[in-house]
Design goal:
Helix content: over 70%
Largest sheet: none
Order of helices and strands: HHHHHHH
Radius of gyration: 15 Å
Low-confidence stretches: none
Strand content: under 5%
Length: 143
C-alpha cells in the first residue's frame, strides 16, 4: 500500500481516536450479530476500548510499513487466529463495516475518498492477520 494513501487515514485517526469512537464502534458491533455478543460476553470494556484503539494504531502503522505495526499485526493474528479466538473473515468484514460507520459518525472531514482509504488500510491489516493465523495453524503440530 502506498504510504501517501495512509496519511489521510492517520490524520483521521488523530481527529477521532478516543472513547467516543470506541463506544460508538462497540455499540454497533455488539448489535450487529449474536456471535459478536457471545464473544464479548465477559469483556472488560474499559480495557477493551484501549486495546481497540491500540489495534487501530497497529493497522495504520502496518499499512505505513512500520515495525511497530508489523509486531502489532503478528500479536493480533495470534489473539484472533485459529489457535485462539478463531475469528473468521466474515467476522473481520463485519468489524470493518461497523468501524467505518463509527468513523463516519465521528470524523467531521469524512468523505467517500477517506472511507475508501480507511477500508484499504483495514483490509490490508486484517488480510495479513488472517494469513498469519492460517500459516501459524498450518505450522502447529497436530494433536
Amino acid at each position: 500500500m502506498d504510504r501517501a494513501d495512509v496519511q489521510p487515514v492517520a490524520r483521521s485517526f488523530v481527529r477521532v481516536k478516543g472513547d467516543p469512537l470506541a463506544r460508538t464502534f462497540y455499540d454497533r458491533f455488539l448489535a450487529s450479530d449474536p456471535e459478536v455478543r457471545r464473544l464479548f460476553a465477559h469483556t472488560d470494556f474499559d480495557r477493551q476500548r484501549d486495546l481497540f484503539l491500540h489495534g487501530i494504531y497497529s493497522l495504520i502503522d502496518y499499512a505505513r510499513g512500520g515495525a511497530t505495526g508489523r509486531l502489532g499485526i503478528k500479536r493480533l493474528a495470534r489473539l484472533h487466529g485459529p489457535d485462539s479466538m478463531q475469528v473468521t473473515r466474515p467476522m473481520f468484514d463485519l468489524w470493518i463495516v461497523c468501524l467505518l460507520a463509527a468513523l463516519g459518525e465521528h470524523d467531521p472531514q469524512w468523505s467517500p475518498e477517506l472511507r475508501k482509504r480507511w477500508e484499504q488500510v483495514l483490509r490490508n491489516g486484517t488480510d495479513a492477520m488472517i494469513e498469519l493465523g492460517r500459516a501459524s495453524a498450518q505450522a502447529s503440530p497436530s494433536s
